[in-house]
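Hi support team,

I've been running sequence recovery on a batch of backbones for a student project. Most finish fine, but this one hangs at about 90% for roughly twenty minutes before it completes. I'm not sure whether the input is malformed or the queue is just slow. I've pasted the structure tokens below so you can try to reproduce it. Let me know if you need the job ID as well.

Thanks,
M.K.
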């Protein structure tokens, strides 16, 4: 199959995702009401909104799982309506819940997907991804023994088999504890460092703030704001400088006690009453 060099060059230079006037309704329920979005290649783009805002509907349309009622959308230069097969070759989708086989080991899950994609050296691909997502030591264990964060990282690793240039992460940290969320955030940052374009949907404000190069706020089926974090902050009046005593949040306390690596860091720490922890004799 021949390829037009000009079209290939435009595909590389232009936005990897381009959406214009996207609309979708279910009878009287208008889920999307003319969504316009552009995502730069190699960036992390966060689609932020509350439950029911239409985030998952956008992802389903972009991944060719759902047809829009109106508007156009291209992914990696391919139209989602007329070139669905080419779009699917360019993407990977990770849903709200980890799609892993708990009976198999982490490595066996990766090898299975690599074989289904008819790739050479599935074992080598599995080992590389286990190392990339810090799962080598757990690679031979059954996934049923994994923590939530480990399962999510394995799920994302499975999505990368075949090196798709675009990955959709639909609320990837839903239901995870604070430590597991941090593990997934690190995995997402690693994707961007490797050149993968990430479209992330989330309802967590801190998640979008921590990860995204650009944030679009989807509300009642419309994009009501779109920009970088500094650009969005400039939409508000200038902040007043006031002295406020900042108290630690529960997340700060949790991470300080547990530690980022999950080890107990309370040895010798004072109890809430001010007494020292004492070992049994």
């Amino acid at each position: 199959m021949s390829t037009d060099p000009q079209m290939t060059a435009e595909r590389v230079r232009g936005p990897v995702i381009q959406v214009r006037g996207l609309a979708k309704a279910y009878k009287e329920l208008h889920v999307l009401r003319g969504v316009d979005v552009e995502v730069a290649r190699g960036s992390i783009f966060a689609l932020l909104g509350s439950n029911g805002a239409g985030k998952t509907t956008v992802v389903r349309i972009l991944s060719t799982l759902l047809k829009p009622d109106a508007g156009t959308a291209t992914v990696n230069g391919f139209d989602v309506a007329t070139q669905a097969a080419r779009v699917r070759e360019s993407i990977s989708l990770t849903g709200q819940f980890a799609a892993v086989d708990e009976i198999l080991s982490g490595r066996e899950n990766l090898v299975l997907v690599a074989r289904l994609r008819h790739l050479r050296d599935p074992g080598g691909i599995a080992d590389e991804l286990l190392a990339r997502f810090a799962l080598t030591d757990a690679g031979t264990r059954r996934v049923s023994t994994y923590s939530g964060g480990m399962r999510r990282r394995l799920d994302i690793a499975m999505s990368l088999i075949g090196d798709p240039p675009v990955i959709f992460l639909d609320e990837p940290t839903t239901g995870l504890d604070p430590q597991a969320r941090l593990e997934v955030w690190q995995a997402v940052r690693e994707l961007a460092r490797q050149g993968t374009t990430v479209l992330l949907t989330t309802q967590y404000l801190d998640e979008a703030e921590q990860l995204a190069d650009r944030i679009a706020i989807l509300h009642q089926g419309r994009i009501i704001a779109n920009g970088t974090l500094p650009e969005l902050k400039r939409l508000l009046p200038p902040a007043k400088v006031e002295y406020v005593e900042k108290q630690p949040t529960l997340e700060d306390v949790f991470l300080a006690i547990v530690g980022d690596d999950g080890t107990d860091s309370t040895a010798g720490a004072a109890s809430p009453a001010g007494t020292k922890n004492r070992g049994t004799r």
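--
Follow-up from support: It reproduced on our side and the slowdown came from queue contention, not your input. The CA atoms of residues 21 and 241 lie 41 Å apart. No action needed from you.
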